[in-house]
Amino acid sequence: MANHITTKWLGNMKFESTNPSGHNLFIDAGPENGGNSEGYRPKALMLSGLAGCSGLDVASLIKKMKLDVADFSIEIDANLTEEHPTYYDKVTMQFHFYGDNLDEKKLQRAVDLSVEKYCGVMEMFRQFATVSVETYFHNKSA
User: Fold this and answer.
1) What is the DSSP letter of 86?
2) SS3 37
3) Fewer beta carbons below 10 Å: N end or C end of the chain?
């Protein structure tokens, strides 16, 4: 299955990129690199793609497992190499689950399934980075 995007230069350092979903996004450099900060940075967008891919998996599994979760978020810290071309060599993902009655075992299973089996973006990241995953439960009833 092929995906097609078109990324069009809008002048200076700004681009508009299509997406198969029909939603467009803007990419731009920061002022330190000649841009106006009017869009996403390409490398940070990769991290958002990783969080989004795994987040969609986990949200789907929460629904399928009928788990009671008030909210969850994913935080990512990534280290860029110093030599050019710079790339992420170490990535840490933190899953934070919030609720009154969290089923920690099933939620951990959902994270594990995403990370180990379902998330294709995670598999791509593993080709060039060491990825570690941490799970935190903020259980109000505990």
Assistant:
1) P
2) coil
3) N
pLDDT by 10s per residue, the chain, length 142: 678 999 999 999 999 999 888 899 999 999 999 999 999 999 999 999 999 999 999 999 999 999 999 999 999 999 999 999 999 999 999 999 999 999 999 999 999 999 999 999 999 999 999 999 999 999 886 5
First to last CA, the chain: 45
Q: In DSSP terms, which residues pair with 134 in a beta bridge?
A: 94
The count of other CB atoms within 10 Å of the CB of residue 120 is 9
d(CA 80, CA 58): 27
**Nearest-angstrom CA–CA distance, 5 and 15:** 12
Domain covering 42-139 assigned CATH 3.50.50.100 in the classification: no
What pTM was estimated for this model as a whole?
0.92
